[in-house]
Design brief:
- 2 copies of one chain form a homodimer.
- Chain A is an alpha/beta fold.
- Helices cover 38% and strands 22% of the residues of chain A.
- In chain A, helix 7 (216-225) crosses helix 8 and helix 8 (228-252) packs across helix 9 (267-281).
- Chain A is globular, with a radius of gyration of 20 Å.
Chain lengths: 312, 312
């Protein structure tokens, strides 16, 4: 039996999985991400964890064909420029990790890799091209066309979080601009809108009980129950997102837009909230782009990493 | 000697050219577009014109390898869905034209084909990926990545004219939405802005002499001379375009954005006007996307059609 390793490197944890060459996941595990000393131990930890896992499972390294990995930064030719979440500057992930673990390594941006996972394993190639967006702390995204990642000139293909969607915003985004998509459609953005609406009015709201500890999940939970402020926050956020996604479809015109990340756990409720603005924005190019919640949850990255490593 | 025919089918004229297989243009001519009877004669006229040209030049049809053509509508698999400018409904261009002219035919959307022309012949493949936009009566566009047209699921890849860029617009675009890029950045849009600013103030302006006959070219000419209203029109238009192009770079992240079409004849003046908003919008993904005026002018389409026909 031959195997491939899929790795999804995040700022808090590294998700790892072992796959048979036909794509069946035989094991899934996580290790913490050690960000001390500018994350200098991260790749060593990954290599060691793979090695230990293979030994425990009685698999010889010669049976492992390759390792795929998603990295939280813009990548070009195996090198990541800067990963703020890991404390990294420029790191040649492919060269360093293959030396450390003795395997052929394939690496790409984590959002691109997750998109590849949903394209291949989540939706079983039923769409020829997709934009997958990830709504989490930020808003990430990846473009896949006929099984290929479109990573772009500097690796920012599909990185739609800092598209400017509002020109009257006065609050500054972490990127230095005002009115970025991430300020409205990320978990952080939805929480921001709720706190703003709570402070602007005296309307009764269950959210007031949470005070500053409010999370995006709280806002969605209360919106589903009908809370006025929570609903206004979700409606504003998803209206802006729906228009932005329609705009993006005018550029890349994918067959489907897949919505993933923590916020997307609300599934159909979320899609229903996005759809009116999305459909309105699509008038000219027609309503032929599907909108669907992601299917692989937090495992999209490792599935994508497996496909990245095996589709070469 | 072997040849390839390049055709750029527009609403007013059909531009045609004969190329040697190595890409040298040996002849360039145009015929009027006959839009009578829902444009039913257009493809016959093209086939006849090719035939006559070959006879006049003493070229046997066996020496012609193929014909490429750009069509003003969204295309998928050789079929165009609808061409309002030609009066066409659904037309299988590839099948009909190849029957009529006895040549192997390759067809794609005109903006995509023009983009391919600039990518290959205008810029000699010095950029790995480009977005080319055409500022004319409308705003069209095409995406090229490593020599391939990214035409999208329904053929609207790069068709950015109806991206919504303003949410406070009250005037309705021809597509039925309000605030589309085309309402500001097309020749029609720039003229619209100038007429609006003229009617809203009593500021002295050379444009008042033109009255309703004002054209986009007049607005640019007067802006270059320093006319206040003309400058305000150009500045507003190009500010909106600059931000929109930066947003698009967050989706597709091309190495260069090429600006073509009638409006682009203003060259460096135009680029200077677009650049501040473009650079501001690019903060997060870096200023590594070039902005350049197109090089082939009205011949981009026929060059692209030649490359479409020969790159298979």
């Amino acid at each position: 039996m031959r195997y491939t390793v899929g790795v999804d490197l995040g700022g808090t944890a590294v998700k790892m999985a072992l796959f048979t060459l036909s794509g069946d996941m035989t094991d899934y595990w996580t290790i913490p991400t050690d960000r001390t000393n500018n994350g200098e131990n991260i790749l060593t930890d990954i290599a060691r964890s793979v090695s230990v896992k293979l030994t425990l499972m009685g698999i010889d390294k010669k049976q492992v064909t390759s390792l795929g990995i998603g990295i939280p930064g813009a990548m070009k030719r195996g090198v990541v420029d800067k990963c703020i979440n890991l404390g990294w500057g420029s790191v040649n992930v492919v060269s360093e990790l293959s030396t450390l673990c003795g395997l052929k390594v394939y690496a790409d941006n984590d959002a691109n890799v997750a998109a590849l996972g949903e394209y291949k394993a989540g939706f079983n190639e039923s769409y020829k091209s997709i934009l997958m967006i990830t709504l989490g702390t930020g808003v990430g995204g990846g473009l896949i066309e006929e099984g290929r990642i479109i990573s772009g000139h500097t690796g920012y293909g599909g990185e739609i979080g800092h598209m400017r969607v509002r020109y009257d915003e006065t609050e500054v985004c972490k990127c230095g601009k005002c009115g970025c998509l991430e300020q409205y459609a990320s978990a952080t953005g939805i929480r921001r809108l709720a706190l703003k609406y709570l402070s602007e009015s005296d309307t009764k709201s269950a959210l007031r009980l949470y005070a500053d500890d409010i999370t995006c999940k709280d806002v969605f939970d209360e919106a589903i129950k009908g809370d006025e402020i929570a609903l206004k926050s979700v409606d504003t956020s998803m209206n802006i997102l729906g228009h932005a996604l329609a705009n993006i479809c005018h550029v890349f015109n994918p067959e489907a837009v897949i919505i993933g990340g923590g916020v997307a756990k609300s599934g159909d409720f979320l899609i229903e909230k996005i759809k009116p603005a999305f459909d309105k924005g699509m008038i000219y190019i027609g309503g032929q782009t599907s909108l669907a919640p992601a299917r692989l949850g937090e495992q999209a990255g490792v599935y994508g990493a497996y496909h990245l490593a095996t589709s070469h």
